[in-house]
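About this split. The held-out portion is used to measure sequence recovery: a designer receives only the structure tokens and must propose an amino acid at every position. Recovery is the fraction of positions where the proposal matches the reference. Here is one held-out target exactly as it appears in the evaluation file.
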């Protein structure tokens, strides 16, 4: 990096920007964000402006240990939603705290934005906990439900649904936490929920929520010493707002957070172009007066 001539190649990232990149990685890499999310965070917050490929290149120079060459197998292509509240996913995952007590974390997400709509922590697998989670989310977000439009994602299982009604698909697995009380609450409260079982009613798996479970554990829970269930609840209450409101994700092409996608925000392309142009000018000015030690 020291051998590059800034005067001859004035378009390259400047020394000041490299220092900014290093500080950014020190701050965000410890949160175990993916590099793409760190890049999006830097751009949308006017911290650093460069292409994603350039960002990867310079991260490889300054922090090569952040890269992994593990083989990734090809995966079956899933379905695509076109708006929030089209499909929700619900699941429960286990976590054992340092006092050797097992807790069950119930999480509900929106497929389109990957926003966490709600969560609960319980001491057992219980359908009433899942039912309460779904019911609270419906009352909180129902005003933003969309009218059913065709072609629908799962037309063969929607034949009994009114085309004029607003509803959301709730995809779950076949576990006991997703039956009994959950189905009873949906029926008795006439909730606008069309419950479908992954791998049974449809061929798709419930992988979107499983991915969020993994993110929650590996980017938050496993990185900390969590003594008991009370502290587990506290950590989740701290981390989930960061995930929803600060951490850009792939659904927003790393420039929007889950909450921004869910609320219908879009990337301000003109502002990004303006900021990139200004950053480019500052880069040229900085590199023109910099010395590579040779020329």
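Reference sequence for scoring:
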């Amino acid at each position: 990096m020291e051998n590059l001539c800034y005067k001859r190649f004035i378009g390259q990232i400047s020394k000041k920007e490299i220092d900014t990149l290093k500080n950014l990685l020190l701050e965000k890499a410890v949160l175990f964000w993916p590099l793409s999310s760190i890049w999006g965070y830097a751009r949308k917050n006017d911290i650093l402006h460069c292409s994603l490929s350039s960002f990867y290149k310079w991260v490889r120079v300054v922090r090569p240990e952040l890269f992994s060459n593990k083989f990734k197998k090809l995966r079956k292509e899933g379905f695509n939603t076109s708006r929030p509240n089209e499909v929700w996913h619900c699941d429960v995952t286990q976590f054992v705290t340092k006092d050797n007590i097992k807790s069950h974390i119930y999480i509900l997400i929106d497929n389109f934005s990957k926003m966490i709509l709600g969560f609960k922590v319980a001491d057992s697998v219980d359908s009433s906990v899942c039912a309460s989670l779904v019911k609270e989310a419906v009352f909180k977000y129902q005003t933003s439900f969309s009218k059913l439009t065709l072609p629908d994602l799962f037309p063969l299982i929607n034949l009994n649904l009114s085309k004029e009604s607003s509803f959301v698909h709730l995809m779950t697995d076949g576990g006991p936490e997703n039956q009994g009380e959950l189905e009873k609450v949906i029926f008795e409260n006439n909730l606008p929920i069309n419950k479908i079982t992954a791998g049974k009613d449809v061929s798709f798996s419930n992988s979107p929520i499983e991915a969020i479970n993994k993110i929650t554990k590996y980017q938050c829970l496993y990185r900390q010493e969590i003594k008991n269930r009370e502290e587990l609840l506290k950590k989740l209450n701290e981390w989930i707002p960061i995930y929803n409101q600060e951490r850009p994700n792939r659904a927003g092409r790393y420039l929007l957070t889950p909450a921004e996608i869910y609320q219908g925000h879009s990337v301000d392309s003109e502002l990004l172009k303006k900021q990139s142009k200004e950053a480019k000018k500052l880069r040229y000015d900085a590199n023109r007066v910099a010395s590579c030690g040779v020329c």
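Annotator remark: The first helix runs from residue 15 to 28.
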